[in-house]
């Protein structure tokens, strides 16, 4: 009864089946399952889920599901299913086993999500002539990321049923819930479903033209799509938390408790990549590729799908002419064709039709996009529904309305142009995508005389190109968002390195090619004692590999966890944080926004100093370093000397992709307001809090709750753990929800380094400081004494990516 009561609080569509009986009969089905499929309880309970299969269900998909069930493993995949009335739909099925303490599978949870509207469907296998996917974004990967999060909640409910527990989706249904508050108060609401001119024009006049917009797909991915949309947008308001002291027992109210499973504990620390900037632009637009026959659509926004009523599967690979109808003015159509032929922009009004035949008056803007060589790359087509703004006699938009609205569609096209440049050119061949990984690496000034570089150079001097064969695997070190990492030895030298290997097919299928390429580009420019050195990069038939420094001290996260009280002293926290601030200052000077600071990504070198790693979620932009000369404050005596000038370097551009780690993500990333390097200073505040208090300040029982806490929850400091006023003030300054007022936003690392918390830090000589003593000392890992006898550790290409098997869960 407790289990049933607990499951009824979830609004997801799912079933629970009995893994101990033949054919896995269904024990429980949610109300959403009955609603989605059209079947009744009597027709479902006690049966196997195969009744959802039909004539066009792919037997290979079914075989994969059966294999996962037989082996008691997780599964996530899309297959064609059928409702009771025979309607076919694309079902994203996620299966998770429930095991007892001995590892025996007792139950299976099968969660279903209808993704017919947004999936590429059968087009997922469609390829361009160059061998790359036809669609610019792989949407199944996005849906799988969300499904993995939601099924974790269900697993927790089945393992530890509590009738009073509430799921994140159940909480969302309440107007007064914290998630509701997120949507109603802090997220910019979208225009109405048809993207009306009235709402857009009001948006422009009231708020000015926004630089970035979120997409409805983004709200869906973080679980905030359960709310209705309003036609009247509201500005983002950042409500600053009160600084509170709290008793220890109050700290567990919103955080993880003893019932949390390892899946959730792993999920909360894993880097997430929920959406690119392109996917978060909430406007009606498509991107076409004129280099392909018939200039087909390769990207369509969620808003465009809502406006036109088509599914993504129906329009990817097609020309936009399907929007035309009986009364579409062919002279206007010809003007668009002429603009395409002449590769120029144009803005026109014309009558278009939705899938069901509804007419809408479209203000259409076409804009060519060119690559760095000036050659035509894509066309961007932006639509704005002006049906409600037509002049009654002329049946057109007035000249004034057209002029105002043209500014909106052109601004949208500019935003799309900027966003799509973050992605690799779809016309590149698969080999071209990874060409940078095959380039030789040059030694940087500060490491050119190291033994590691000398060992690498000896191979090059023999005329050999460094590859996988030159390295012997010793042990796996872990895995990141886009690859596995191994400890390797350069054969014949005894020198140890860390090798990150990324499987090419996984990068393509999970929208991570641009992430992997960005990491290679970033590592190539780093030359800093607290950042990794790139010694070599190469590719095999299946993988791309990066060879960097091996840090025998392991992760700061593990060192923190080994401390008896799971916290550092303030002196220790100050030391590590100071070096991290220095590393971030260097990155920002290079125009790099890190975006994934957390203890797991801070490694410890053999001398005890830090090294930041994992740059696959980082953003590369530009930076204008400045020497700032302080001005004399008004009313001060002129004979008092001015402070010396200081150096400031912060990246100048913003991004709007949804990346980071759940507990460390800044508010502006969640709200979709566009973010700058200030997100790194927010993460510094979270990290300092975790080092001093042993946990992060905004952790929730699920991802949506964590995000709601980041946006709303008061910042509290446990009274049982002593912390100086300076430490609490620094944390509070760094965790300012408004990035414009956040410490570090005005003058970068300079103002952080001047904070009283860092009193005693000699910044120019910090690399020569001796790390403070620890209660549990630093433990070093390295080459096993008997590793020379382990013939089994000789690898082939596939072994370079062994940890890719199940990182969705």
From TrEMBL:
It is an enzyme of class 2 (transferase). The keyword DNA-binding does not apply. GO terms for molecular function: ATP binding; blue light photoreceptor activity; protein serine/threonine kinase activity. It holds the Pfam family PAS_9. Its cofactor is FMN. Residues 73-127, 344-398 form the PAC domain. Residues 192-214 are annotated as: Disordered. Keywords: ATP-binding, Chromophore, Flavoprotein, FMN, Kinase, Nucleotide-binding, Photoreceptor protein, Receptor, Repeat, Sensory transduction, Serine/threonine-protein kinase, Transferase. It catalyses: L-threonyl-[protein] + ATP = O-phospho-L-threonyl-[protein] + ADP + H(+); L-seryl-[protein] + ATP = O-phospho-L-seryl-[protein] + ADP + H(+). SMART domains: PAC, PAS, S_TKc. Residues 1-69, 270-343 form the PAS domain. InterPro entries: Kinase-like_dom_sf, PAC, PAS, PAS-assoc_C, PAS-like_dom_sf, Prot_kinase_dom, Protein_kinase_ATP_BS, Ser/Thr_kinase_AS. ATP binds at residue 500. Its EC number is 2.7.11.1. Coiled coil: none annotated. Residues 471-758 form the Protein kinase domain. Belongs to the protein kinase superfamily. AGC Ser/Thr protein kinase family. This is non-specific serine/threonine protein kinase. It comes from Onoclea sensibilis. The lineage of its organism: Eukaryota, Viridiplantae, Streptophyta, Embryophyta, Tracheophyta. The gene is PHOT2.
């Amino acid at each position: 009864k407790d289990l049933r009561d607990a499951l009824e609080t979830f609004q997801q569509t799912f079933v629970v089946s009995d893994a101990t009986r033949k054919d896995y009969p269904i024990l429980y089905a949610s109300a959403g399952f009955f609603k989605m499929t059209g079947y009744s309880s009597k027709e479902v309970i006690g049966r196997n889920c195969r009744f959802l299969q039909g004539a066009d269900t792919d037997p290979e998909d079914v075989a994969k599901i059966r294999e996962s069930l037989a082996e008691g493993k997780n599964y996530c995949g899309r297959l064609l299913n059928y409702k009771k009335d025979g309607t076919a739909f694309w079902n994203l099925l996620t299966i998770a086993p429930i095991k007892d303490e001995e590892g025996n599978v007792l139950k299976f949870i099968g969660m279903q999500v209808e993704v017919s509207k947004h999936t590429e469907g059968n087009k997922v296998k469609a390829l361009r002539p160059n061998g790359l996917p036809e669609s610019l974004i792989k949407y199944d990967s996005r849906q799988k990321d969300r499904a993995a999060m939601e099924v974790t909640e269900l697993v927790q409910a089945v393992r530890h049923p509590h009738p009073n527990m509430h799921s994140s989706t159940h909480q969302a249904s309440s107007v007064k819930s914290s998630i509701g508050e997120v949507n109603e108060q802090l997220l910019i609401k979208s225009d109405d479903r048809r993207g009306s001119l009235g709402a857009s024009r009001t948006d422009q006049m009231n708020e000015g033209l926004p630089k970035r917009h979120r997409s409805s797909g983004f709200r869906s991915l973080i679980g905030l799509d359960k709310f209705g949309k309003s036609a009247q947008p509201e500005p983002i308001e950042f409500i600053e938390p009160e600084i509170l002291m709290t008793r220890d027992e109050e700290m567990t109210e919103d955080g993880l408790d003893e019932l949390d499973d390892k899946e959730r504990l792993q999920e909360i620390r894993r880097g997430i990549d929920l959406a690119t900037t392109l996917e978060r632009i909430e406007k009606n637009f498509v991107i076409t590729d004129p280099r392909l026959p018939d200039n087909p659509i390769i990207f369509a926004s969620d808003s465009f799908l809502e406006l036109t009523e088509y599914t993504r599967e129906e329009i990817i690979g097609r020309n936009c002419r399907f929007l035309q109808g009986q009364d579409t003015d062919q002279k206007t159509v010809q003007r668009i064709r002429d603009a395409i032929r002449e590769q120029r922009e144009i803005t026109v009004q014309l009558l278009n039709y939705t899938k069901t035949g509804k007419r809408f008056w479209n203000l259409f803007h076409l804009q060519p996009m060119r690559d760095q060589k000036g050659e035509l790359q894509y066309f961007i087509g932006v639509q704005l529904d002006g049906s409600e703004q037509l002049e009654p006699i002329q049946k057109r938009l007035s000249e004034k309305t057209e002029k105002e609205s043209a500014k909106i569609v052109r601004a949208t096209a500019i935003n799309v142009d900027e966003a799509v440049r973050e992605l690799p050119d779809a016309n590149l061949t698969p080999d071209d995508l990874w060409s940078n990984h095959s380039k030789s690496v040059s030694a940087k000034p500060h490491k050119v005389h190291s033994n590691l570089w000398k060992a690498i150079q000896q191979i090059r001097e023999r005329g050999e190109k460094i590859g996988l064969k030159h390295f012997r695997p010793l042990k796996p070190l872990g895995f990141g968002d886009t690859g596995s990492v191994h400890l390797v030895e350069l054969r014949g030298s005894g020198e140890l390195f860390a090798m990150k290997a990324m499987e090419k097919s996984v990068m393509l299928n999970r929208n991570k090619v641009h992430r992997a390429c960005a990491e290679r580009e970033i590592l190539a420019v780093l030359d800093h004692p607290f950042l990794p050195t790139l010694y070599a990069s190469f590719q095999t038939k299946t993988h791309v590999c990066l060879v960097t420094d091996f840090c025998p001290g392991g992760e700061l996260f593990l060192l923190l966890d080994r401390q008896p009280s799971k916290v550092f002293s303030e002196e220790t926290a100050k030391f590590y944080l100071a070096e991290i601030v220095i590393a971030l200052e260097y990155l920002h000077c290079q125009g790099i926004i890190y975006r994934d600071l957390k203890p797991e990504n801070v490694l410890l070198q053999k001398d005890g100093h830090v090294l930041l790693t994992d740059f696959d979620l980082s953003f590369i932009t530009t930076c204008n370093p400045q020497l700032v000369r302080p001005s004399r404050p008004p009313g001060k005596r002129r004979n008092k000397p001015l402070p010396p000038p200081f150096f400031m370097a912060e990246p100048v551009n913003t991004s709007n992709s949804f990346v980071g780690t759940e507990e460390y993500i800044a508010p502006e990333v969640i709200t979709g307001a566009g973010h700058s390097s200030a997100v790194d200073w927010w993460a510094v505040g979270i990290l300092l809090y975790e080092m001093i208090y042993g946990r992060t300040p905004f952790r929730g029982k699920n991802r949506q709750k964590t995000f709601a806490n980041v946006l709303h929850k008061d910042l509290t400091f446990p009274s049982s753990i002593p912390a100086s006023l300076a430490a609490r003030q620094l944390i509070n300054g760094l965790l300012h929800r408004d990035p414009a007022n956040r410490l570090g936003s005005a003058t970068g690392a300079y103002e952080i380094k001047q904070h009283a918390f860092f009193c005693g830090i000699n910044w120019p000589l910090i690399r020569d400081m001796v790390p403070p003593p620890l209660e549990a000392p630093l433990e070093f890992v390295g080459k096993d004494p008997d590793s020379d006898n382990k013939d089994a550790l000789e690898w082939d290409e596939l072994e370079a990516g062994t940890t890719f098997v199940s990182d969705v869960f």
